[in-house]
Write a structure and sequence with these properties.
Elements: H1 27-38, H2 44-54, E1 60-61, E2 64-65, H3 69-83, E3 101-102, E4 109-111, E5 124-125, H4 133-142
Parallel strand pairs: 4-5
Antiparallel strand pairs: 1-2, 3-4
Helix pairs in contact: 2-3
Length: 143
């Protein structure tokens, strides 16, 4: 996934977002501060998708003071709901079927087959479990 969008984010160049320990320690205040920092950010959707994809923890991204373990998984699900994406069970945390994921050949970020790019910005449609449509078609032609 291209990261050009990051330069348009409210947090661009700001180290304050890099560590949740810099936020208030009391949980409601921590969550409110994280939401306030990201409110109205023009690249919220891209940030949220990257947060889910990379499984970020211990940082402020997409309006969340990302925790660890099951707390982070709950926060990823909250982001999925905000993006209109299906949620995952806690037992799915290391499931390779989670989206978006990268094509094993070209490393581009893929979205589920048949899904609109509008829901998955900066992604390419998957053709199979681990190949994007373009790489799959290229492999078919060369076979």
């Amino acid at each position: 996934m291209s990261s050009e969008w990051r330069s348009k984010g409210f947090c661009y160049g700001d180290d304050y977002f890099d560590d949740v320990d810099m936020l208030p320690s009391h949980e409601p205040a921590k969550s409110f501060t994280a939401q306030s920092m990201c409110k109205g950010c023009p690249v919220f959707k891209e940030c949220a998708i990257e947060t889910i994809r990379l499984r970020d923890v211990g940082v402020v991204k997409a309006g969340k003071a990302l925790g660890y373990g099951n707390k982070a998984l709950s926060q990823y699900n909250e982001l999925r709901v905000e993006l209109g994406l299906p949620t995952v069970r806690v037992s799915d945390k290391f499931n390779p079927d989670l989206w978006p994921r990268d094509c094993r050949h070209c490393d581009r970020s893929m979205r589920p087959k048949g899904q609109q790019e509008m829901l998955w910005p900066n992604t390419i449609e998957a053709r199979s479990h681990d190949l994007c449509m373009e790489c799959h078609n290229r492999a078919e032609k060369s076979a």
